[in-house]
Amino acid sequence: MSTTRETTVSLTDVSTYLPGEPIGADYYAQFAESDDLRDNIMFRAPAFRHHVAPDETAIDMIERATRGLIERNGEDVIEGADVLITHTQAPDLPFYGAGGGIAHRLGMRPSWVLDLHNGGCAAFVLALNVARQLLTSGAGHTALIAVAQNAAGQVFDQPGVRRKAQAAVPGDGAAVGLVTLSDESPILGIECRTYGEYHGEMTLTAEPHRKWWAAGPGEMSIGFTESKITKVLARGNRQVPEVALAVCDRIGLPAKDIDLLVTNQPNRAFLRNWREALELPKERHRDTFDECGNLFGAGIPINLDRAISDGQLEAGDVVMMAGFAHAGDFAGAAAVRWGGRG
């Protein structure tokens, strides 16, 4: 089916931000205690990661990530965006997301401001899907996607939590994507799937148990168990290739012909298993795990920006972005034919 310039939606550009200097694995080694999960493949630490500063907000991170977009595309393009879609891993304020604050900080007056929470580590793909639907339906000509991962230096660096194996894996970072009605870097296909039966399996726990908002002793961390990890590994290994292959089928592209695979990056095992399932060599799967750790929802756009900046993704290449969220309650994939960075 042919499309016209007016109905084609493109991921025109992406820009990112990593806070502070890299933090080495030795930082967590000094706090490590006996942990039943310490030898689990889920928690084998990266060499480095970045931490958000104590007084740095998600809005600060997004503003800093947007500088590259402004330099390349002009301030008017960002200020004039019709749609703003955001995702923040650890909202700075309770009850609502950062969308309104981001719009104000960037001088935007968008008709649509949406804060997505259910996309998790695949939030960038979900936001691409929402942006494409809104722009093709007449909601405007430009959308800004903003993703902030800020839990590593806050939740996981609490004095009690950082002794756990899970604390050494996450890293912080932020990314923004510019989506436009154009054929510059067309979105070829998107697949988003919700697995509601797994909703709520990724939980916060404290000792003694309490609800997340209730006062009490003990810091909160993610409630991992060997049984939960086994289930998450099985779901993630299956879901990410499934959604990527669904997009390949829709656009008529054999998986082996994907020029670059960009995924979220929970651990090395997932990264290896995903590229093997899609029969792609390591050099065609962007991997910054040892530089940045698990970047959660910011992982896909940060890896994409790195690939563009160093020439791993060239004009005309097809990039497949794919990921899954939480304990497997959501997965998504999107293919884009990259048109180059102007």
TrEMBL record:
Molecular functions (GO terms): 3-oxoacyl-[acyl-carrier-protein] synthase activity
UniProt KW Cytoplasm keyword: no
Record-annotated Beta-ketoacyl-[acyl-carrier-protein] synthase III C-terminal domain positions: 248-338
Coiled-coil intervals, chain numbering: none
GO biological process: fatty acid biosynthetic process; secondary metabolite biosynthetic process
Record's keyword annotation contains Transferase: yes
Chain ranges of the Beta-ketoacyl-[acyl-carrier-protein] synthase III N-terminal domain: 118-196
Assigned keywords, A-Z: Acyltransferase, Transferase
Stored InterPro entries: ACP_syn_III_C (IPR013747), ACP_syn_III_N (IPR013751), Thiolase-like (IPR016039)
PANTHER family membership: 3-OXOACYL-[ACYL-CARRIER-PROTEIN] SYNTHASE 3, BETA-KETOACYL-[ACYL-CARRIER-PROTEIN] SYNTHASE III
Name under which the protein is recorded: 3-oxoacyl-ACP synthase
Organism of this sequence: Mycobacterium conspicuum
